[in-house]
Design brief:
Elements (H helix, E strand, L loop, with lengths): L3 H20 L4 H29 L3 H41 L1
Length: about 100
């Protein structure tokens, strides 16, 4: 059995990673580290979090915290995807200019 504080600790860690990533959205160099940390967290601790939740359940505050993290994760994905699409469009526009030039 996992203690509720383990779930709180994992949620806190996830929240901190997401905060760092959101703070770096405008700087791709700085964003790389928080995204690597997020990937590492998901690869190494997500299964542990799922097990802890399955074994112990979550209280209302933990559910709200997890929902908030999920919203921030979706927002992060949307913003990074928009940035990638912008670069794709820029690349296409530049390639078209080169062909015309």
């Amino acid at each position: 059995m996992t203690s509720p504080s383990t779930i709180d600790s994992m949620l806190k860690d996830l929240d901190e990673i997401l905060s760092r990533a959101h703070a770096c959205l405008s700087d791709p160099v700085k964003l790389a580290e928080p995204l690597a940390n997020l990937e590492n967290f998901l690869n190494n601790r997500f299964a542990e979090m799922k097990t802890a939740i399955a074994e112990d359940g979550m209280n209302g505050d933990q559910r709200l915290h997890l929902a908030s993290c999920m919203d921030r994760l979706v927002d992060l994905q949307a913003k990074t995807q928009a940035r990638l699409e912008w670069f794709d469009t820029l690349g296409s526009d530049l390639a078209e200019m080169v062909e015309r030039g």
